[in-house]
Amino acid sequence: MGKCDGRCTLLVICSLQLVAALQRQVFDFLGYQWAPILANFLHIMAIILGMFGTVQFRFRYLIFYAVWLVLWVGWNSFIICFYLEVGNLSQDRDFLMTFNTSLHRSWWMEHGPGCLVTPVLDSRMAPDDHHVITVSGCLLDYQYIEVLSSAFQILLALFGFVYACYVSKVFQDDEDSFDFIGGFDSYGYQPPQKSSHLQLQPLYTAG
Fold it and tell me: Coiled coil: which residue ranges (predicted)?
């Protein structure tokens, strides 16, 4: 029952991670955030691999999933520092998120709760095929929405890491105990020998 509880809890965590990653992927696509899009895609693949390892009792897949979660926590920590402009990070370098292929920023910048977007006409600051806008009245600025999203991802990753390590340890202990009990052990399996019920009878010949 303990092993089932750990597996079920890990599957629930993976399901929440998958839903959160798909939701984040949609908004990153809308904002043309190519670096987060690539990271989200890898994260989705790692989640699916972790769910497969949980269902199929593959502890090596769970170890890979746990290692990826460490990298995922690091990536989301960078996003938090980026939007909060920690250290030398600045949102003026927001093109890092788009691989310098576009001038788009976070989708939440213009579509946050309560945001009012006003286009600035005849602005000389706008490059070709672009326009300048002003955003006001937002109940929550877009950088804080991105920070909260990354913080939620980190929270799920921490729970996933703990349960992945626990379940993989249970799987490994079960394999070791199975070998110790004698399932296909080093002595090999010896099929039972058929016993012969034939009896030898003396042969008499007429003299």
Answer: none
Which residues touch 66 (CB under 8 Å, ≥6 apart)?
160, 161, 164, 165, 168
Kindly list the distances between the CA atom of residue 175 and the CA atoms of 8, 57, 82, 169, in Å, as whole numbers in the listed order: 20, 10, 44, 10
pLDDT at site 131 = 59
Task: Please name which of 120, 113, 161, 173 lies closest in space to residue 138, comparing C-alpha atoms.
Answer: 113
Task: Decide: helix, strand or coil at residue 11.
Answer: helix
The type of residue at 9 is T
For residues 169 and 91, give the distance between their C-alpha atoms in angstroms, rounded to a whole number: 42
Q: Is 83 exposed, middle or buried (0-12, 13-18, 19+ CB in 10 A)?
A: buried
Tokens representing 35 are 């670096």
CA-based nearest residue to 97, from 142, 134, 67: 142
Which residue has tokens 């877009």? 142
Q: What is the number of residues in the chain?
A: 207
Spatial distance between the Cα atoms of 75 and 28, rounded to a whole number of angstroms: 15
What are the structure tokens assigned to 156, written together? 């799920």
Strand 116-120 with 132-136, pairing:
antiparallel
Q: Is residue 1's pLDDT more than 50?
A: no
Answer yes or no: is pLDDT of 108 > 50: yes
* Residues whose CB falls within 8 Å of the CB of residue 124, separated by 6 or more in sequence, listed in order: none
Tokens of 134: 């002003």
